[in-house]
Amino acid sequence: MVILSILFESIATILHSLIFLYIMIVIGTIIASWIGADPYNLIVATARKLTQPLYNLIKTYIPATVINGIDFAPLVLLIGLQFIDLFIVGVLEHFAQALK
Q1: 32, 69, 81, 92: which could join 12 in a potential S-S bond, CB 3.0 to 4.6 Å?
Q2: 11 pLDDT above the threshold of 90
């Protein structure tokens, strides 16, 4: 059971790290849009390619994310990522502790 516990802890840690990394990418795209970064810059273009599909998905299910020209899809995405991080990673860690 200890091996299974370590497996779940490892999965939780990796998932938490990936979610944190994606949150940083979303924040980077937000800042890049505010300062008007060059959209042809490799880093900016890659970050947009990583975030735009989820922004479009959010806009499909919640059409009122653009209010007075301000796009709130990144905010909705950040809240969703935080929920996933707190809930799913928390459940995995709790399950790992229960197996010890």
Answers
A1: 92
A2: yes
